[in-house]
């Protein structure tokens, strides 16, 4: 049997670090959910440090896979695992600055699910012809989408707080535990501003990559959706700068943009799983 | 005079109507003289006067047997110094001593006895009262330590229970709601529409929470100017309302108008100008100044007086739930402080006992040294040392033995019990420790 080359290896068996991170993400999920409803002061810190441990162990898993020539840009499936890692890292970074502890109850289980899907679902046929350009394209797209995912989580929190205030539900948990509306709005916008140029670069590289491979049919649904994502977030940044779009309108547009990102990811994953 | 007990005498919102409280209240410039008069009384050693709108109390300490006399002295002083007949205070005035007085002090400091449970003002007032007593030299070690402990307990109660959580008055709620939208209020602008007192109070609260500018507008330019001076803001013509809405972040409205002042059209136009930056409108007027549909505009958060009062009610209900935990925390601290107070009562006795033992020992050791100088053989040295031991023992035992022999039957039984307990004596007369050593040898 010939030795495995980087191109032919789409996946390797899950490492012990993967299982450890899975357990830690599960524990963090549990702690965040309990912390959201219980007043004990140690719970939020315990949840945050467990998530940090999960993030570090997950990082070890990604590193180990890199040594085995399976890096985040190797496939969309790998990118999904990387996406969850970047998302958790971003969340941890911002949660030390802004009161978004409640979001942990969504970020931790989302990371758990994404990682499980990335490692435990069928890998489908290998993409032998990816090349460096393709891998960089996937990696950058993943980073961009991770920022959009975080911006979306913050936007959802914004909408929940906005709704509670408008409906005068002052004892609502989100209102009590969340940061102010203006802070959440600013954070969501900042994350989009960070993610957008990265996503734009990935899109340009993707176009070049497709052109190089002489793939016909630019009307593929995932490519069209990528255009929708780019236009949505671009429009949001322009609208905020020129017309002062913010608050609820901005939050809804952020969610719409991210929904399109999820659709693209879903199409890619389904295609890989079906071997298309 | 030995250190003794703590007492408190006074009236509060729980026991006396404002008519009685205001007659008993001390002005700041009257407190020094009153404190001097109190400690001039032979029954009272230390005194602190706490006089606020909700309570007038005299805290004092006195020698142990004189507690009732000291409290009675303070009670009659309170009536006499305020020119009120003592009978007029009957049913309003309360008196607590020892553990009850300490518990009362800790509860007052922790705002558990306040009209608004958990309010923060009382702690500052108590600190001021103690400061005045320190300056007037009417506070000594007992009240001093008790007050310091009360401040510590209050801090613990505030940080370890939810007794002070959430705003408990309408103007503080306005600040809390503005914070939920903006977070930090630094640099935010407040617009006061109308000349209501409540708006002025809320504006001042917002200003002290960091809001940088206060704009005031009113149909009457004179009233606007008057309120602007009062709240350290700037007055603006009524016709500029739309422009002012574009500049402000928080609007406090309390006009006496019969028709809505803040209409959907006006606010929508202002929101366009402010590029949809959030706007908090607190409508305290009755009838209301703002059309209800304004609350549906993106980025506009409209609250009326009922909303604010609901938050106050909810917060106070939450504080009530925490009061039990706070009370048990206070009880624990009272028990600890009581131990300290009791320890203070035996300090003079322990000091005298130590001095007496040292004196006896010194005299006999000196005598022994003189005898040792004359000793010519080891037998004489031994004799001198043994004699010293015997003399010390005899001198120390002289008084207790005389008391044991001379007392009445009941008294002797009590003294025997105390002596056995103090010296750890067994039934056979030997000390427990020495006896056991002998037995083991």
Distance between the termini of chain B: 48 Å
Strand arrangement in the largest pleated sheet of chain B: 7-6-5-8-9-10
User: Tell me, what is the CATH class of one domain in chain B?
Assistant: Alpha Beta
Secondary structural class of chain B: alpha/beta
Order of helices and strands of chain A: HHHHHHHHH
Just name the CATH architecture of one domain in chain B. 2-Layer Sandwich
CATH level 3 topology of one domain in chain B:
Beta Polymerase, domain 2
* Helix percent band of chain A: over 70%
- Output the number of helix runs of chain A: 9
The Cα radius of gyration of chain A reads 19 Å
Run of helices and strands of chain B: EHHEEHHEHHHHEHEHEHEHEEHHHH
**Mean pLDDT across all residues of chain B, rounded?**
88
Tally of structural domains of chain A? 1
Looking at this protein, list some descriptive labels.
heterodimer, A: 276 residues, mainly alpha, 0% strand, disordered N terminus, B: 441 residues, alpha/beta, Beta Polymerase, domain 2, Rossmann fold, six-stranded parallel beta sheet, four-stranded antiparallel beta sheet, 10 strands
Which helices and strands occur, and which strands form pairs?
The complex is a heterodimer of chains A (276) and B (441).
Chain A: H1 16-37, H2 42-67, H3 76-95, H4 104-120, H5 131-166, H6 173-177, H7 181-212, H8 221-243, H9 247-273
Helix pairs in contact in A: 1-2, 1-4, 2-3, 3-4, 3-5, 5-7, 5-9, 7-8, 7-9, 8-9
Chain B: E1 5-12, H1 18-24, H2 28-40, E2 46-51, E3 55-62, H3 67-81, H4 86-89, E4 94-97, H5 98-109, H6 121-135, H7 141-160, H8 170-182, E5 189-193, H9 197-208, E6 213-217, H10 221-231, E7 234-236, H11 241-247, E8 250-253, H12 264-273, E9 279-283, E10 300-304, H13 305-374, H14 378-406, H15 409-423, H16 432-440
Helix pairs in contact in B: 5-7, 5-13, 6-7, 7-13, 8-9, 8-13, 11-12, 13-14, 14-15
């Amino acid at each position: 049997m010939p030795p495995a080359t980087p191109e032919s290896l789409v996946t390797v068996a899950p490492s012990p670090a993967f299982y450890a991170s899975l357990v830690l993400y599960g524990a963090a999920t549990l702690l965040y959910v309990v912390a959201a409803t219980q007043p004990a002061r140690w719970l939020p810190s315990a949840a945050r440090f467990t998530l940090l441990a999960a993030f570090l162990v997950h990082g070890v898993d990604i590193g180990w896979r890199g040594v085995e020539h399976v890096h985040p840009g190797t496939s969309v499936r790998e990118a999904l695992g990387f996406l969850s890692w970047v998302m958790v890292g971003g969340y941890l970074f911002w949660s030390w600055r802004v009161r978004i502890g409640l979001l942990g109850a969504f970020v931790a289980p989302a990371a758990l699910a994404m990682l499980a899907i990335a490692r435990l679902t069928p890998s489908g046929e290998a993409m032998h012809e990816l090349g460096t350009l393709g891998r960089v394209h996937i990696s950058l797209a993943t980073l961009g989408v991770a920022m959009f995912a975080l911006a979306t989580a913050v936007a959802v929190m914004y909408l929940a707080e906005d709704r509670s205030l408008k409906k005068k539900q002052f004892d609502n948990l989100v209102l009590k535990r969340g940061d102010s509306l203006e802070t959440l709005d600013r954070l969501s916008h900042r994350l989009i501003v960070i993610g957008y140029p990265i996503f734009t670069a990935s899109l340009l590289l993707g176009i070049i990559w497709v052109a190089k491979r002489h793939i016909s049919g630019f009307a593929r649904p995932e490519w069209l959706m990528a255009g929708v994502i780019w236009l949505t977030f671009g429009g949001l940044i322009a609208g905020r700068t020129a017309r002062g779009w913010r608050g609820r309108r901005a939050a809804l547009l952020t969610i719409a943009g991210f929904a399109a990102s999820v659709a693209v990811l879903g199409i890619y994953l389904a295609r890989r799983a079906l071997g298309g | 005079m030995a250190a003794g007990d703590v007492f408190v005498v006074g009236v509060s919102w729980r026991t006396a109507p404002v008519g009685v409280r205001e007659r008993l209240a001390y002005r700041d410039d009257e407190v020094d003289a009153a404190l001097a008069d109190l400690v001039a009384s032979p029954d009272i050693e230390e005194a602190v006067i706490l006089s606020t709108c909700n309570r007038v109390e005299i805290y004092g300490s006195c020698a142990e047997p004189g507690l009732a006399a000291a409290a009675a002295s303070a009670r009659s002083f309170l009536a006499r110094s305020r020119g009120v007949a003592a009978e007029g205070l009957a049913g309003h005035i309360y008196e607590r001593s020892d553990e009850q007085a300490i518990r009362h002090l800790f509860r007052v400091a922790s705002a558990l006895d306040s009209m608004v449970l958990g309010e923060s003002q009382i702690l500052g007032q108590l600190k001021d009262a103690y400061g005045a007593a320190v300056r007037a030299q009417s506070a000594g070690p007992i009240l001093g330590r008790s007050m310091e402990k009360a401040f510590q307990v209050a801090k613990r109660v505030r940080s370890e229970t939810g007794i002070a959580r959430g705003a408990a008055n309408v103007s503080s709620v306005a600040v809390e709601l503005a914070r939920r939208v903006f977070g930090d209020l630094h640099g935010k602008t407040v617009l006061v529409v109308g000349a209501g007192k409540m708006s002025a109070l809320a504006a001042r609260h917002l200003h002290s929470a960091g809001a940088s500018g206060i704009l005031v507008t009113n149909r009457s330019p004179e009233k606007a100017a008057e309120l602007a001076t009062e709240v350290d803001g700037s007055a603006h013509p009524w016709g500029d309302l739309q422009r002012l809405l574009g500049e402000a972040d928080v609007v406090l409205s309390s006009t006496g108008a019969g028709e809505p002042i803040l209409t959907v059209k006006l606010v929508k136009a202002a929101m366009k100008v402010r590029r949809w930056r959030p706007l908090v409108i607190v409508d305290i007027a009755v009838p209301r100044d703002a059309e209800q549909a304004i609350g549906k505009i993106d980025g506009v958060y409209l609250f009326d007086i009922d909303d604010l009062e609901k938050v106050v009610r909810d917060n106070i209900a939450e504080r009530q739930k925490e009061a039990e935990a706070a009370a048990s925390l206070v009880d624990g601290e009272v028990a600890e402080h009581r131990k300290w107070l009791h320890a203070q009562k035996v300090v003079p006795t322990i000091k005298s006992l130590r001095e007496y033992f040292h004196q006896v020992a010194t005299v006999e050791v000196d005598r022994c040294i003189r005898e040792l100088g004359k000793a010519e053989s080891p037998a004489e040295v031994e004799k001198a040392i043994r004699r010293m031991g015997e003399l010390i023992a005899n001198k120390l035992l002289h008084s207790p033995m005389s008391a044991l022999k001379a007392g009445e039957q009941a008294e002797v039984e009590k003294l025997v019990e105390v002596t056995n307990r103090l010296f750890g004596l067994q039934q056979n007369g030997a000390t427990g420790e020495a006896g056991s050593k002998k037995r083991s040898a």
